[in-house]
Design a protein that fits this description.
14 helices; about 300 residues; alpha/beta; Rossmann fold; six-stranded parallel β-sheet
Amino acid sequence: MMMKKSLVFMLSVVVACSVALSVPIRHAKAGQLRPVVLWHGMGDTCCYSFSMGHIKQLIEQYIPGIYVYSMEIGDSVEADEFNGFFMNANDQIKEAINRISTNPNLTNGFNAVGFSQGSQFLRGYVERDNTPPVHNLISIGGQHQGVFGVPQCPGANYTLCEWFRELFDLGVYDSFVQRHLAQSNYWHDPWNPSEYEKYCIYLPDINNEITINQQYKQNMISLNSFVMVKFTLDTMVQPIESEWFGFYESGSDSVVLPMRNTTLYQQDWIGLKTLDSQNKLQFMSVAGNHLQFTDQWFIQNIIPLLNNYIDE
């Protein structure tokens, strides 16, 4: 019971502290509302009623008639939770591409909202496929430059967290660990950049750190907007600035470079500088711990980004 309460605290909105709006949003025009795809974080699932299930209902309540798809990796909620830890990011994205491309409700494109690691996985979808296309990409607590430290393991399943820790103990860049532990795929060691680039099988690729994949960059530039939400009191993500695409200076785990000071941005490896010049980057912050936000905050800040139409 205590673990379940912890998961509510770390992975869901703080419903008890929320102040809901009194009436749903009313649409000023007729047309096809752009659908929404959600992707949960580590230790969560597509459908828990206190996390992604609640977010899905919130969007449907305030944008009547919208279609919301919450990503499920695997054939059950239990498999989805397990795969969030133990299916590598590349395989998760392949499954997501298949699920999105075969969903008739998403054929004309959608807005995408990622939570924690779901954010960098949705960005992987955009860069590697993006058919159908993402309009607004919204990252809530995503770790786009990776992490260097995992102080907490969120989740209701204590056993999964113990397995997670045991795999990390084997060595984060070990090939077995990389194939079987999703979180190792965005472990970014600033003290060993060559090992990170050589052995990390996901993040260096989608950040164009090894070779420049022009299609990745073009797909990012095609976004209408890329929104990044940072939690200023985050005790899970190290460094917090990764949520706004900042990261440690090479050879340091204390000096953090903001996004615009990184080589990735300055050389425009994935199009961030281009998006910035077009005013397509948005930065939001929440004075809370990881994924700790209220209904009211979500309604006021995220719902408007989802309330748009295919023909716009």
